[in-house]
């Protein structure tokens, strides 16, 4: 009974901790920039002296030092919500209904002909819009978001932890990154696969748990990577303390599950994810409440190791 209570308590703590980023966001930049100014007065004097000879150099130094977490978060909201999502809504809820109405007026004498024309026009416009606008902007947003997410994560880590440790070598860093991407992709596929279980409550529950753990991994991975943790250690830690991470990833998993469109779901994720990155840096996960690790990553680890052994070379064994 105590074990069950501990599991629910850990889930609750994870759920609450996932909202910390929304609070810290508004004072992190100010405190961090003040800390930088106090910690390096000599560099400020050097920058002032250099400004006489090279103003651009001094501005570059200042720009490098300043924390821009709030700015980057607003940029994510503007790009994914104000541009990407809004353009889709305008097209689907504004332009298409307007064109349909105009066709009804033009073919008012022959409604059946208007319906036939619309049945050809709508798919053509949707395909054109998706190819010319949605797909390029989706790919561009993925690239830009990844850069902004990394900037937010590094600033959040410096604010709470200090200087990142990172991994010991460049080759290990590249291998860890590639292996992590492969594992995450396979785990996402595993989550989609279990959602097809013919018993709806079980399939939906397992799929939701997969998404909660995956989103928690996304959020905490920046912090753990800066701490020098390798992928196997990160996954083992999540599996051993799964109640906390299920609770942490639950809000984002639910909110991204609500839209019917994969693209809109991606917009929701990109808007909210910076807050979860910050929350992950602020959080202290509840550990040791469950004696049974949830080995959901083990199947994809085995597959990823097999693929790595056949393509790149032997992967590091999981400890």
From TrEMBL:
<dbReference type="InterPro" id="IPR059112">
    <property type="entry name" value="CysZ/EI24"/>
</dbReference>
<feature type="transmembrane region" description="Helical">
    <location>
        <begin position="123"/>
        <end position="144"/>
    </location>
</feature>
<feature type="transmembrane region" description="Helical">
    <location>
        <begin position="261"/>
        <end position="278"/>
    </location>
</feature>
<feature type="compositionally biased region" description="Basic and acidic residues">
    <location>
        <begin position="45"/>
        <end position="62"/>
    </location>
</feature>
<keyword id="KW-0812">Transmembrane</keyword>
<keyword id="KW-1133">Transmembrane helix</keyword>
<feature type="transmembrane region" description="Helical">
    <location>
        <begin position="165"/>
        <end position="187"/>
    </location>
</feature>
<comment type="similarity">
    <text>Belongs to the EI24 family.</text>
</comment>
<feature type="transmembrane region" description="Helical">
    <location>
        <begin position="207"/>
        <end position="225"/>
    </location>
</feature>
<feature type="transmembrane region" description="Helical">
    <location>
        <begin position="237"/>
        <end position="255"/>
    </location>
</feature>
<dbReference type="GO" id="GO:0016236">
    <property type="term" value="P:macroautophagy"/>
</dbReference>
<dbReference type="GO" id="GO:0016020">
    <property type="term" value="C:membrane"/>
</dbReference>
<feature type="transmembrane region" description="Helical">
    <location>
        <begin position="77"/>
        <end position="103"/>
    </location>
</feature>
<feature type="transmembrane region" description="Helical">
    <location>
        <begin position="6"/>
        <end position="28"/>
    </location>
</feature>
<protein>
    <recommendedName>
        <fullName>Etoposide-induced protein 2.4</fullName>
    </recommendedName>
</protein>
<keyword id="KW-0472">Membrane</keyword>
<dbReference type="Pfam" id="PF07264">
    <property type="entry name" value="EI24"/>
</dbReference>
<feature type="region of interest" description="Disordered">
    <location>
        <begin position="41"/>
        <end position="62"/>
    </location>
</feature>
<dbReference type="GO" id="GO:0005783">
    <property type="term" value="C:endoplasmic reticulum"/>
</dbReference>
């Amino acid at each position: 009974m105590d074990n069950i209570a501990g599991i629910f308590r850990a889930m609750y703590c994870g759920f609450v901790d996932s909202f910390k980023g929304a609070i810290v966001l508004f004072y992190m930049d100010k405190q961090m920039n003040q800390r930088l100014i106090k910690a390096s007065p000599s560099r400020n004097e050097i920058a002032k002296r250099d400004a006489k000879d090279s103003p651009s150099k001094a501005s570059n130094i200042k720009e490098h030092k300043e924390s821009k977490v709030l700015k980057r978060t607003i940029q994510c909201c503007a790009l994914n919500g104000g541009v990407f999502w809004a353009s889709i809504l305008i097209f689907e809820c504004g332009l298409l209904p307007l064109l349909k109405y105009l066709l009804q007026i033009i073919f008012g004498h022959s409604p059946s002909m208007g319906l036939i024309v619309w049945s050809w026009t709508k798919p053509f416009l949707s395909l054109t819009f998706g190819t010319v606008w949605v797909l390029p902007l989706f790919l561009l947003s993925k690239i830009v978001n990844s850069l902004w997410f990394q900037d937010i994560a590094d600033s959040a880590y410096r604010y709470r932890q200090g200087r990142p440790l990172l991994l010991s070598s460049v080759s290990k860093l590249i291998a860890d990154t590639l292996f992590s991407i492969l594992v995450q992709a396979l785990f996402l596929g595993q989550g989609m696969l279990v959602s097809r279980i013919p018993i709806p409550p079980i399939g939906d529950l397992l799929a939701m748990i997969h998404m909660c753990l995956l989103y928690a991994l996304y959020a905490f991975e920046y912090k753990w990577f800066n701490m020098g943790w390798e992928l196997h250690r990160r996954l083992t830690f999540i599996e051993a303390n799964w109640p906390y991470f299920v609770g942490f990833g639950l809000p984002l998993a639910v909110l991204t599950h609500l839209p019917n469109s994969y693209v809109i779901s991606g917009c929701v994720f990109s808007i909210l994810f910076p807050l979860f990155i910050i929350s992950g840096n602020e959080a202290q996960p509840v550990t040791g409440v469950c004696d049974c690790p949830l080995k959901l990553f083990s199947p994809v680890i085995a597959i990823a190791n097999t693929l790595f052994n056949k393509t790149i070379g032997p992967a590091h064994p999981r400890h």
